[in-house]
C-alpha cells in the first residue's frame, strides 16, 4: 500500500530517534545470574569486567545509540579499574542522565534476552519494573521477551547469554 507523506505521520514523529543495542557475555559455573538489575537463582553466571548484566548493557547501548552519544564501552571503559564489578544499573542511570540532559525522553524500549536457561517468565515483571525504575518511566514503556537458543550455537549450549534492545526517544521541545 502506498503511504503518503501525510499518512506516514511525518509531523507526529518529528524529533523521534531510534537506537539499537546488542550484547553478549560468556557464562561460567556458579550463580546467581544478574539480568536486568535482578539476581536470578541459576547455576551459571555471566562473566564480565562489570557485573556483566547483558540486558542492562544492551539497554544502555540502545539509549546511547538513539541519542548518538557513543556507547557503553566509551563511557565506561573496561580498562578503568573503577568499572570493575560495577553495578550496571548505576552505569545505565549515568548514561541516561547524559541523554536526558540532551533533552530526550523515552517513548519505549523493547528487549529480547537469548538464553537457553533459566526460564525467564517468573522474573519478567520484576525485571521490567526494575529497568523502568532505573529510567524513571512506567513499566509499560519496557517490553521484554525471552528466546532460547533451540539447543544449538553458543546460547543453546549455555556457553553464552545475549540480549538485544531497541529504544525510541523523543526530543523534548
Ligand atoms: Zn556487556
Task: Provide a short characterization of the protein structure.
By secondary structure, the protein is α+β, with helices and mostly antiparallel strands. β2 (about 35) and β3 (about 40) form a beta hairpin. The chain has helices at about 55-65, 70-75, 90-100, 125-135, 155, and strands at about 15-30, 35, 40, 45, 105-115, 140-145, 160-170.
Task: Output the keywords.
173 residues; 7 strands; two-stranded antiparallel ribbon; alpha+beta; 60s Ribosomal Protein L30, Chain: A; binds zinc ion
Assign a percent range to the helix content.
25-40%
Share of residues in strands: 25-35%
State the low-pLDDT regions, or none: 1-13
Provide the list of bound ligands, each named once: zinc ion
Corresponding CATH superfamily: 2-C-methyl-D-erythritol 2,4-cyclodiphosphate synthase
CATH topology: 60s Ribosomal Protein L30, Chain: A
